[in-house]
Design goal:
- This protein is of the alpha+beta class.
- It has a single domain (2-106), classed as Protein of unknown function DUF952 (ADP-ribosylation fold), CATH 3.20.170.20.
- 18% of the residues lie in helices and 30% in strands.
- It contains 4 helices and 12 strands.
- The chain has helices spanning 7-14, 28-31, 42-46, 64-69, and strands at 2-6, 18-19, 21-23, 26-27, 34-35, 57-61, 74-77, 86-89, 93-94, 102-105, 108-109, 112-113.
- The strands form 5 sheets. Strands 1-6-10 form a 3-stranded antiparallel beta sheet. It has a 3-stranded antiparallel beta sheet with strand order 5-8-7. A two-stranded antiparallel sheet has the order 2-9.
- The longest helix has 8 residues, at 7-14.
- The chain is globular.
- 23% of the residues are buried.
C-alpha cells in the first residue's frame, strides 16, 4: 500500500523511527488512523487532497505483511462515491526498511503531481 506525505513530516518522524501523521496537518492520534492508498487510488489522492500542495511530497511504499508482523492492523473502508475500499493503517508504524521498503520523491508536471512508476514494487492495484 502507499502513503503520501509532506517530505518535512516524513523527515521529522524519521528522527524518532516511527511515522504518526494521518494526513495533511493531522496526527494519527487525532484521526485514529493513517491514510493510505492503493495504486489505483493514488491519482485521486494526489489530485484531490494534495493538489494544491506547494511543498515537496514523498510517496512511502508500505509492506502490509510487515505491518501485520508489528501488530498494526489495516482497515478497509468504503471510499467516497462508488470507488473501491481504501486502506486505513490503524497505528503509527516503524519507518525501517522492512516496513517501508521505499520512499520516493514526487514530482510535478504541468502543475500536477505525477504518479511515479511503481512496477518494481509489490503494491496493491
Amino acid at each position: 500500500m502507499l502513503h503520501v506525505a509532506f517530505s518535512d513530516d516524513w523527515e521529522a518522524c524519521e528522527r524518532f523511527g516511527e511515522y504518526n501523521v494521518a494526513t495533511r496537518n493531522t496526527l494519527y492520534e487525532v484521526a485514529g488512523f493513517v491514510h493510505a492508498s492503493t495504486l489505483s487510488g493514488l491519482p485521486s489522492v494526489l489530485h484531490g487532497p494534495y493538489a494544491d500542495a506547494s511543498i515537496p511530497l514523498v510517496l512511502a511504499v508500505i509492506d502490509e505483511d510487515s505491518l501485520a508482523d508489528e501488530g498494526i492492523e489495516v482497515a478497509w473502508v468504503p471510499a467516497e462515491g462508488a470507488g473501491a475500499p481504501v486502506p486505513r493503517i490503524l497505528g503509527a508504524f516503524p519507518m525501517d526498511g522492512r516496513t517501508v521498503p521505499a520512499v520516493i520523491e514526487l514530482g510535478r508536471a504541468d502543475g500536477r503531481w505525477v504518479v511515479p512508476d511503481l512496477s518494481g514494487f509489490s503494491v496493491r492495484p
